[in-house]
Amino acid sequence: MQVTSFGFGSAGELPLDFDEALNRTKEILARHGFGVQAEIKISEALKAKLGVETPREVILGVCNPALAYRAIQAEPGITVLLPCNVTLRETASGVHIAAANPEALVGLTGNPELAAIASEAGRHLAEALNEI
User: Fold this and answer.
1) What is the rounded distance in angstroms from the CA atom of residue 15 to the CA atom of residue 58?
2) pTM for the predicted model, two decimal places
3) What's the total number of domains in the chain?
4) What is the pLDDT of residues 28-72, one digit of tens each?
5) Distance between CA 121 and CA 33 in Å, rounded?
6) What is the Cα–Cα distance from 3 to 26, expressed in whole angstroms?
7) The domain spanning residue 111 has which CATH number?
8) What is each CA distance from 41 to 74, 86, 87, 89, in whole angstroms?
9) Which pLDDT value is given to residue 11?
10) Residue 97 pLDDT more than 90?
11) Which domain holds residue 45?
12) How far is CA 17 from the centre of its chain?
């Protein structure tokens, strides 16, 4: 798994068709308690708004309702950082999948009550990405 200060993702490109990777990602996220709240086809938006061609890329706004509820109880303003983003980007050799690191995001709040919730969310997201 590739890890940065703000996210984590597949160590390389997964040798999958983009649509297959997208469907598989949604199914596996659901098994790990995450529902897709939004699907932004960023490459299509860039084409429509700027006329530029980019590889296919989708941003999935995913949410684990139980964890989101706990976070909102601890910090009502946390909703500006929800949902968690998972991205799929088409590459020459497959699809790269990545997710925002919930622990990095909640670090912006300064609320220590969110640390355990973010850690749990991150663990579930990492498990899902590893399964893909």
Assistant:
1) 17
2) 0.89
3) 1
4) 999 999 999 999 999 999 999 999 999 999 999 999 999 999 999
5) 10
6) 21
7) 3.30.310.70
8) 32, 12, 10, 10
9) 59
10) yes
11) 2-131
12) 19
